[in-house]
Structure formats: structure tokens, C-alpha cells
């Protein structure tokens, strides 16, 4: 999952053989924050079987889209727990310490079901040869809004018959499947596939990115659009977004080292996590730009704080161009240092 939706918390196995209108789903997993992951596992002996299992996974996904939390809980309690004790309710399957309170958990699950925000995994052997063909037609499914991935399970047998090692490998994944749009104009309706819809988003969509922008939107409704424009400007200097629990800005330096230029948390705070002589100049630039001061942790990491806290992104919208300039200057200093080291060598 770290390769597919890295922003999700750890997965909790919920049940097997989940009864849905379209059949029995192999595996249901969820997170403590109400995220939903389904897994369909098959041995693929021929291309037809491969196409059928993808279609089956899409049918299961469609069935889930039409459910509520109560519907899902009812189905879970009818499913297979592989000899484990059946819970009294779905919420009981999750550790209390790391879980949302029950009302918030129910709301999160309902929101994910309503929005079709689900991770769909198809796992099996021998699917490498036509992986692109299998995922190529997914965008044509109107109403879907999920992340889809193919995972190959390579099986190796040891000396004993039952001595098996199964190695999973992500073969292909989509960005989050976008919803089709139905446009009604003068009593005429027209379906627009995602490929026909113009979007200003500069970053690939994923469940992690959507959840991040939802949290940011709650702070300021226009802020997601501002950040997407900022991401596009960062891309012009080779800095790209990485969505995890926060939005990280990464740059791959010529030495092969990936530099984190800073990150924005879901509560809107802006942080750096840098140490070293060259990094200090960059953090000094940001401190001047954000009108804050530098704080250094015991480990040597440097941060900018404003009034004792991480600066809020909604207060920096008129300084984002300056942040891009600071990134570019930092890149230049790193490149110069690399050149000097090469000459010295």
C-alpha cells in the first residue's frame, strides 16, 4: 500500500467472502480512519480469466458505492471471519487508541462510500504480460472514483511441498479514477467522460491527495485551487508533490539524493525538516519570507516558526511565488556544492 496509496494508515483485515449484490468479495480491509480497501485474488490461467476478474472487481466496487455504513456493517457481520470471533459491530474490529471516535468513524465510512473513494486491488499470478490492457478501459466507467492496482503474487517453492514464499509486486496502478460528469443543458443531457473534462489540477489525483485537499478546503474554500497552482509552479523547477499524511515537496538532486523542500500538514501548517550548512541558508530565506524565526531541534533539524507555531498556509498565499524562488536558489546552492566537490575530487 505504500506504493499505491501511501497516505493511508495501516490496514486492518476485516473479513473474507463479504456478501454483496454482485457476489462474494474475497477480502475487505479498512483503516482506523474509515478508508476502504477491497482485494480480489485469482489464479490467472488465461487472458479471459484476467479480464473477468477485473470486471468482477468493478462489479463489487459498484455494489459498495450504493451502500451506507449500516449496509456495510450488516454485510460484514454475515461474512467469513476464518474461525475468529465475530464482532458485535464493525467498529469493534479497530484498536481504540488509534481509531476515530465511533461517530466520526461512521461519518468517514459513509463519506467514502458515497464518494466511491475505495482502493481496489486485483492480485494474482501471471498478469504482467497484459497489465496495461487490463487497466486501459477503466476510465470509461462512469460514476467510479477509486484507485485501482494490479498486484502480482510471485510464488516460489522450496525443498518441501508446502514450503512456499509469496512475493507481492505492484505491476500497475491508476491515479484515482475520476467521475464522469453529466451535463444538463436546455433539457438535453450529455455524459462527459473524464478525458473530456478540463481540469486545472497539476498533480495526479489519489485518495491521499483528495483527503488532503478536503482538509485544506475546510480552512479556506479557495485554498485548494491556490495550492494546485503552486504545485504547477513548483513543477517548472523540478519540484514535485508527494501526498502522504501531509503534502511534501520533493526534488531529486543530481547526486541522486531526494531533497524535501518542505511540507504542509492537513491542519495547514508549513514545516521544513532540514539540517546542514546549505540548508540553513534556505531556511533563513523562508524565515525572512514568512516573517518568522528559525527554531532548531535537538537533532539539528531547522524549522520556521511564526509566533511560536508553524506558519499557516492560508496566511502565505501572497508569498508562494517567493517560496518557489527560495527553492530555486536552494537548488542552485546544492548544484554549486556538487560542482565544487567534483572539482576537489
Largest sheet data: 6 strands, mixed
N to C succession of SSEs: EEEHHHEHEEEEHHEEEEHEEH
Assign the structural class, choosing from mainly alpha, mainly beta, alpha/beta, alpha+beta, or little secondary structure.
Answer: alpha+beta
Q: Which shape, going by the Cα principal axes?
A: globular
What is the first-to-last residue Cα distance? 41 Å
Q: Please bin the fraction of helical residues.
A: 25-40%
Number of helices: 8
The proportion of strand residues reads 25-35%
Radius of gyration from CA coordinates: 23 Å
Task: Describe this protein with a few key phrases.
single chain; 345 residues; four-stranded antiparallel sheet; 8 helices
Q: How is this structure best summarized?
A:
This protein has 345 residues and is an alpha+beta fold.
